[in-house]
Amino acid sequence: MEAMWASTILVVLAEMGDKTQLLGMAFATRFKAMTVLAGVLVATLANHFLAVSLGDYLTTIIPLVYIQIAASVSFVLFGLWTIRGDALEGEDKKDYFNPFWTVTIAFFIAEMGDKTQLASIALAAKYHSLWFVLMGTTLGMMISNIIGIIIGVVMGKKIPERIVKTFSAAIFILFGYAGMYSYISDFTVRLFSMAAVTIVVVAYICYLKRSTLSK
Prior knowledge:
Elements (H helix, E strand, L loop, with lengths): L1 H14 L3 H10 L4 H26 L5 H21 L14 H13 L3 H13 L2 H25 L6 H23 L3 H28 L1
Helix pairs in contact: 1-6, 1-7, 2-5, 2-7, 3-5, 3-6, 3-7, 4-6, 4-8, 4-9, 6-7
C-alpha cells in the first residue's frame, strides 16, 4: 500500500502544470469532461503499464540498492523539470476519429517520454511492486486531471502557476534527498552526493531566473 500512495502523491505533484494536465484542460473545452477522463484513464493504464513493467524488470538485472539510489536522483531531476514546466505543441488540435479516441491517443503519445512516465519507471524500480505502483500512478493521473478540469474549465479560476510548480518541485526534490540519505550507506559518499545534487539544483534555479529576467 505504501507503494500505491507514494506513487499517487508523486504523480499528482508531477502533473501540476505538466503537458498532459494542460492537454486535459484543453480537451475539456472541446469535449465532455467524462469523455476526457475516460480517455485519460485508458491512455494512462496502457502507457504506465509499459512503464512500470520496465521498472519492475530492471530490478531483476540491477541490484536493488543501485536502482533505489538512481530513482532518488531522478526525483530531484523531476523536481527541476517541474520548475521548468511544459507547454503544448499542438497536441490538443489533432483529431483521431471520435472524441474518446482523440483524447486517448493524444494522451498516450504525450505521455511517451514525459516525466510522469519516467517517474512511473523509477517508482516501479524503487518499490518493486508492479500492480500497486500502476494503481497509484493511474490514480494520480486521474486526480491531477480532475483538478485541472475543475480549476481550468468549470471554475474558471487558476492557482498561480509559480506557487503550484514551486510546491510540487520542492516535494519531489525532498523525496530525492530522503532517498539518497536512506540508500547511500557510506557517509562520505552520501555527503558528497547530496552536496553535488544541491549545487546542480541551485545552479539550475539560478539559470532559470536569469533566463526569465533576460526576456
